[in-house]
Amino acid sequence: xxxxxxxxxxxLLFWVSYVTDFSLVLLIKGGALSGTDTYQSLVNKTFxxxxxxxxxxxxxxxxxxxxxxxxxxxxHFIIGLSxxxxxxxxxxxxxxxxxxxxxxxxxxxxxxILGIVMARAISLGPHIPKTEDAWVFAKPNAIQxxxxxxxxxxxxxxxxxxxxxxxxxxxxxxxxxxHMSIVISVFICIFFATCGYLTFTGFTxxxxxxxxxxxxxxxxxxxxxxxxTVILTYPMECFVTxxxxxxxxxxxxxxxVFHIVVTVxxxxxxxxxxxxxxxxxxxxxxxxxxxxxxLIFIIPSACYLKLSEEPRTHSDKIMSYVMLPIGAAVMVFxxxxxxxxxxxxxxxxxxxxxxxxxxxxxxxxESHIQQTTQLSILNISIFQ
Length: 384
Known about the structure:
transport, transmembrane, mainly alpha
């Protein structure tokens, strides 16, 4: 919302969700046309070994450009402990279907976090100063916003794994599942983006939790819930990376020993990356434009166009022809803009309205709000 402009941001969220829905169905259709059951084998059959290597690199890199947790008080210890205690054991599963209940818990926690963000939009939002350009229709950084949105919706790299875990998988059944999932996801994204942006407008950080004050007990609980969702979600990403390594170097099969060795290697490297990075915004942008965009816009469309024998006027082919150049443009221009104009990052420093002389709505009663607002006005005038 901050990068694209609030109205355009809402429209772009709907557009990216529609493209994601279309490309996920297109991906499975391509698998059915080519007789393949993995993303890599689909691209290998369609574009040969060069395409196979390119896709393998993208799928392998995706989990490594993720900064899982942004905890600044003992964050290294917490990330290391949670990785060894929870993430690694969950990642050692061989069957992705066993993570179904874990994913359900993660979804429930996401809903809980959304409730916290909505509550703070009501209690905190009216007391945060709004930036001058908060309500313009569009901003020049909209392409960067598309990259972040693409990151939010990307799930193509593990779509075949999930598809194969369905009971009696068919394209029709997959399509119904995807339509329902995308609808739910886009509304969750819209509520998160709207409530977060309405609260902080131009002060919104790449990681929304950086905007809240450290003495906010409710938001601290939300941070904890977010950390748990990452712990429960990351094993699905590890499945994909491990599958890439197995297919490229081991012919698709890993012995029990190599299964453990590869999993530990993947988790270790990803954890080291997360320990070194504390800015989520640039991570989301680069991941979105370099990995998510080709996996969503470019590769599914290119595979379908080469495999399908439908006429060029067929709706799926027209949409694919549109998605290809748009994806390429987002990838190139988004990368350049992410490097030249990165998102704001506090590096763990509190925002100006969290200073001791500022107001606090985090653990206060309504009667205290009136008293502390006077202090906030003084502090805001100094900031301006």
